[in-house]
Each structure stands twice: as C-alpha cells, then as structure tokens.
Amino acid sequence: MTTRTFPDGFLWGVATSAYQIEGSPGADGKGESIWDRFVREPGRVAGGDTGDVACDHYRRWRGDVELLAELGVNAYRFSISWPRLFPSGRPPLERRGLDHYSRLIDALLERGIEPVVTLYHWDLPAALDDEGGWRSRDTVECFAGYAAACFEAFGDRVGWWLTINEPWIVGLLGYLHGLHAPGYKDDVRGEVTVFHHLLLAHGRAVQELRRAGVGDGRIGLAPNLSPHYPASERPADVEAARASDGYVNRWFLDAVYRGTYPEDMRRRYEELLGPLDFVRAGDLETISEPTDYLGVNYYSFRMMQAVPGDRPWPWRVVVPEQVETTGGFTAGVASTAAGTPVVPWALTDLLVRVRDDYGAPPIMITENGAVYEDGPGPDGRVHDERRVRFVHDHLAALHDAIERGVPVVGYCHWSFLDNFEWALGYAQRFGLVHVDYETQRRTVKDSGRYYARVAAANALVPVDDA
Ligand code: IFM
C-alpha cells in the first residue's frame, strides 16, 4: 500500500474558541459578551448550561499548552475574546486581557506551535449589541479598531489570522432563528444585512492588517462551507441545490473572491426584500480586499429537495441513508451522535470546486469534527473508535483533494477539548481530549492518540495502528 504523505510543512492543528473553553467571565476586567447574557435567559441553552466555567481554560491554559505539545500538533487555532480586550467593544483597551493572549502566544511559539488566531468567534461585546450589534454598520468600524489593536500587539508573532468565523451561522442562528446569541428573530432582510456587515468587517480587518505593516501574517475568512447535491435528478431539486448553495456558500465566496454578490441570489433577495440598500458603493471592493488563504469549516453536505411554494426558501434538507457519490458508487451514510451525516468524500468535491471556481486560494481546514459521546471506560481510557474512523476518512478525503492539485496548507480538528457547544450545552462532545467537567481532568481519547500519530508521521497512518 502506498503511504499517503502530506506536503512538507503541513500544519496539523486543533481548534477551539474563547467562549467555548475559557470560563472566567469576569476576570481581569472582561466586559460582558452577548453569550454571557444569552445563557442567563431561561430556556436558551439545553440544561441551563453556561460558559461560566467551561474548560476553565483561562486559568488552566499553561497545562493545556503542555497537552497540545503532548499531542504533537504544530498549530493551534483559538479565538481572542473581543470583550477581554475592549470590555465595551471600543477603547479603552484592557491591558490584562491583552497580556493573557500575549502569554499564550509566547508559550505556543516556545513549543513550536503556530498560533492560528480567530478575531471573531461569536462573543460580541454586549455593549455593542445594545447599539445594534451586527445589525448596525457602526459595529464594523468597532471591529476594525479591535482587529488593528490585535495586529499591533501580536502581529510580530502570529502568522495566521482568521477574521470572522462562520458568518452564515451568525446570521442564520443569531439573527434569523434566534437560537444563538443575541437571540433575535429578524426577517430575512435582517439576516442578509448581518451577513453584509460581517463581510464588511472581514474586509476592514484585512485592510487594517496591511496597514499595520507588522510581521508577515496571513489573513483569511473562515466560513462553514457545505457542498450541495440535489436529492434527485428532477430539475426542481437541481435548482433547489443550486439556490441553497448560493445562500450558504456563494454569497460569501463570490463577495470575497469576485467582489460581487452572485447575480441569481441578488435577484432572489431583491424579489423577496426589495432593494438591498444596506450595500453601499465601495463595500464590495472592501470585502474583496485580497486575502492570503481561506479557512474552511467542513462538517457535512446538504442534500436538497424542492418544496415549491415554501417561503422564504422553497427547499428542504434531506438526510439520505445512502447516496451515489460523484465517483459513481453508492455509499451508505452514517451519522454522528448529533445526527449529522458523515460524508468524507464530499470534502474532496468541496475543495476541488473552491479551487476551480475561486482561483485556487491556499486552504486551511479550520474546523472538521463530530459529536460522539464516549467517556472514560473501566481502563480509564476513552475508546472513541467512531471518531478515529471519522478523522481517518476525512484526512483521506483531504489527501485526495491535495492529489488533485488543491493547495491545502493545514488541517485543524474541531475540537481540541470537549467544550460548550452553544445552545446545546455540554452534552455534545467534539473533543480529541475528554473533559470531566466536575474535576476538569483531561483525558486524551483514542482519537487524540491517533491524531498525534498522524501529525508525527505527516502521513495518514492506518486506523489499526491507533
Ligand atoms: O462548536 C462549533 C464551533 O463553534 C463553530 N463550528 C461548528 C462547531 C460544532 O458545532
């Protein structure tokens, strides 16, 4: 059997975000975020869980850096909490919050671990939400100011920046369905306005990095992308897949890489909402400011079926038991414990398509992972075979994409630690490392051990060797 080796210098990382792991919501002058507020509203989060303690990482970060070194990863994706640096969202700067991330970055670099830093992973300062949050264009400039402060403080040491994590999810769950903070149920116009402001904030951060002129950091967006397939060959299903792809993927990628919103989607939105007057002259130039790489969060595909007449979107997502893959063979579709279809081969399709349609930007997989609830057994170990298989199969699909010429620079598994899974609380475990929330004891799962072997070999090692 040939060894599937990854390119030299490939980044093997794990990912987290501030609110999901840090805890210590009031430490060192931190301001309130929209998540600190949201979790206090009854019924918002399963089991009444909050991120008040989470993995207690804000206090245990040194031990967690040792754990990263033990896993042998050479990259760590984490996010900076905006309200730790700017409690009200804008100056004055809280020095203690800044010093925390500075120490974390230094500790990572001392161990040869590249920091991959996300500027916005959903914890907007609550004071800005009081002024309109992402509904308001003013938030864009506040974000640009915060981003500039991060570049000035850390730009000499951080090689990989990500601006906004999953703008589609922010608009969809935070502002349309009200399932995530800030919990609004706006209409589609509100949702698309938020998409636009997030994209504008992305572009403004890119401009600020160039202006700062510190270090040689690379910067990009981290959207969640889902390849779309029609549930049948019926033209209505094919159209449903095309349109939903416009909603989830092309709206963001066309804006960043082509400097335009896709014409079919613009028309659709205008029919539904009237003129998109929140898009001002020059905005798309800002949004399409050239970036250095694309972060891709990949979890699953979307298989679409038309539902004529349904508003606002005439389609629904179906979860098939088996599918005909683009390779022409029929494959069963397993699900994670959260019911998400596990479709590694669709990752190859997705990456090849991004390469073909958007000029082959260097890609980092910034998230990919699955919920499986395995905990420590009698031997004290966590035998999460399904996650081991998940990691193996997705890395095989990633390798296929690389062999087909897609420039992939790294892979960050979601997640490093089990953590606070937003409105779903702590029941959903994504980590390569198990966290006992009572004792804060960390146990590297079998999947973590397997991933460590892959990272050490810079190659796909067989699952049997796990
Ligand atoms: O936990 C989240 C993360 O914050 C954003 N992407 C998806 C993950 C799993 O749902």
Q: What's the CATH topology label?
A: TIM Barrel
Estimated structural class: alpha/beta
CATH class: Alpha Beta
Helix proportion: 25-40%
Mean pLDDT: 97
Poorly predicted regions: none
CATH architecture: Alpha-Beta Barrel
* Superfamily (CATH H level) name: Glycosidases
CA radius of gyration is: 21 Å
Note the gap between the termini.
Answer: 18 Å
Binned strand content: 15-25%
Topology (elements, then pairings):
Layout: E1 11-15, H1 18-21, H2 34-38, H3 57-71, E2 75-79, H4 82-85, H5 95-110, E3 114-120, H6 126-129, H7 138-154, E4 160-165, H8 167-176, H9 188-212, E5 218-222, E6 228-230, H10 235-258, H11 263-273, H12 283-287, E7 294-297, E8 302-306, E9 315-318, E10 322-324, E11 330-332, E12 334-335, E13 341-342, H13 345-358, E14 363-367, H14 385-403, E15 408-414, E16 433-436, E17 441-444, H15 446-457
Parallel strand pairs: 1-2, 1-15, 2-3, 3-4, 4-5, 6-8, 7-14, 14-15
Antiparallel strand pairs: 8-9, 10-11, 12-13, 16-17
Walk me through the structure.
The chain is of the alpha/beta class. The protein has a single domain, classed as TIM Barrel (Alpha-Beta Barrel), CATH 3.20.20.80. Helices cover 40% and strands 16% of the residues. The protein contains 15 helices and 17 strands. It has helices spanning 18-21, 34-38, 57-71, 82-85, 95-110, 126-129, 138-154, 167-176, 188-212, 235-258, 263-273, 283-287, 345-358, 385-403, 446-457; strands spanning 11-15, 75-79, 114-120, 160-165, 218-222, 228-230, 294-297, 302-306, 315-318, 322-324, 330-332, 334-335, 341-342, 363-367, 408-414, 433-436, 441-444. α3 packs parallel to α5 (95-110), α13 packs parallel to α14 (385-403) and α14 runs parallel beside α15. 5-hydroxymethyl-3,4-dihydroxypiperidine (IFM) is lined by residues 17, 20, 166, 297, 367, 414, 421, 430.
